[in-house]
């Protein structure tokens, strides 16, 4: 039976963030879809949307915020999830002072549009080598700028509502792949190792290339890692 895959984008990302990876995997995994998460203000609502796109049990592959959504979907309906691909996922709950700092950025976006904050965001999420590619940076900024300020505000609301993962990770009984880059400033390998040690059937992979935007920075490597892992998610 062909495995069904559902890909979930991260913060300030739309469906195009996963498209290069899906393109690499499509010959082997044609039953793949990308579910956008804009317009929703909680991780729970995002997870319910992801589940609504699943006709059959599927492997959920999430990037950053999308990885948190994938875990929440598992929490809601574990029997409908065959595996969890968790890419560039931060593992910490919202920190003290984070809400105020993010409110400042949201306020700028509400006044001036997301295009006003997108360049600084791109600098934060990309590896130095990716930042040297002007065309790549331009495309990333354009993707982020397509999001409305209202939808960005909702995403931040959802992200600030993220919970600690201590309780749910040991309860995950399906295979999990945790992937990040050694150069990721937001989801460093230490966080992924922490999660790996708590999920019973998991493995962690730390790429030597790319930053926080692995699905766009290193789509071939991400696709290869997923293709090598996905057979473990079959019955």
Chain-wise SSE layout:
Layout: E1 5-8, H1 19-25, E2 32-34, H2 43-52, E3 58-63, H3 65-76, E4 81-87, H4 98-112, H5 118-125, H6 128-131, H7 134-145, H8 149-160, E5 176-181, H9 189-196, E6 202-207, H10 214-217, H11 219-229
Helix pairs in contact: 1-11, 2-3, 4-8, 5-7
Structure characteristics:
235 residues, Rossmann fold, 2 domains, 44% helix
The CATH topology of the largest domain: Rossmann fold
Low-confidence blocks of residues = none
CATH architecture of the largest domain: 3-Layer(aba) Sandwich
Number of strands: 6
Distance between the termini: 9 Å
Please provide the ordered H/E string of secondary-structure elements: EHEHEHEHHHHHEHEHH
- What is the subunit arrangement here? single chain
Largest sheet: 6 strands, parallel
What name goes with the CATH superfamily of the largest domain?
A: Alpha/Beta hydrolase fold, catalytic domain
Shape: globular
Strand content: 5-15%
Describe this structure in words.
This protein is an alpha/beta fold and 235 residues long. It folds into two domains: 5-94 and 164-233, Alpha/Beta hydrolase fold, catalytic domain (Rossmann fold), CATH 3.40.50.1820; 98-156, no CATH class. It contains eleven helices and six strands. The protein has helices at residues 19-25, 43-52, 65-76, 98-112, 118-125, 128-131, 134-145, 149-160, 189-196, 214-217, 219-229, and strands at residues 5-8, 32-34, 58-63, 81-87, 176-181, 202-207. It has a six-stranded parallel beta sheet, with helices on both faces. Strand 3 (58-63), helix 3 (65-76) and strand 4 (81-87) form a beta-alpha-beta unit. The protein starts with a strand and ends in a 6-residue tail after the last helix.
């Amino acid at each position: 039976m062909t495995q069904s895959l559902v890909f979930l984008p991260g913060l300030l990302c739309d469906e195009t963030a996963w498209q290069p990876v899906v393109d690499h995997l499509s010959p082997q995994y044609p039953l793949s879809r990308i579910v956008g998460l804009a317009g929703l203000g909680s991780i729970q609502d995002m997870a319910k949307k992801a589940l609504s796109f699943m006709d059959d049990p599927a492997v959920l592959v999430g990037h950053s915020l999308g990885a948190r959504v994938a875990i929440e979907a598992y929490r809601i309906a574990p029997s409908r999830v065959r595996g969890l691909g968790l890419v560039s996922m931060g593992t910490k709950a919202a920190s003290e002072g984070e809400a105020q700092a993010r409110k400042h950025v949201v306020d700028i976006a509400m006044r001036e549009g997301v295009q006003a904050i997108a360049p600084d965001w791109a600098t934060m999420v990309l590896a130095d080598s990716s930042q040297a590619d002007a065309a790549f940076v331009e495309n990333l900024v354009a993707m982020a700028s397509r999001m409305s300020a209202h939808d960005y505000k909702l995403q931040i609301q959802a992200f600030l509502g993220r919970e600690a993962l201590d309780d749910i990770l040991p309860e995950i009984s399906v295979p999990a792949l945790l992937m990040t880059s050694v150069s990721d400033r937001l989801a460093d390998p230490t966080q992924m190792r922490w999660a790996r040690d708590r999920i019973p059937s998991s493995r962690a992979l730390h790429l030597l290339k790319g930053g926080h935007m692995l699905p766009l920075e290193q789509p071939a490597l991400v696709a290869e890692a997923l293709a090598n892992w996905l057979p473990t998610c079959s019955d």
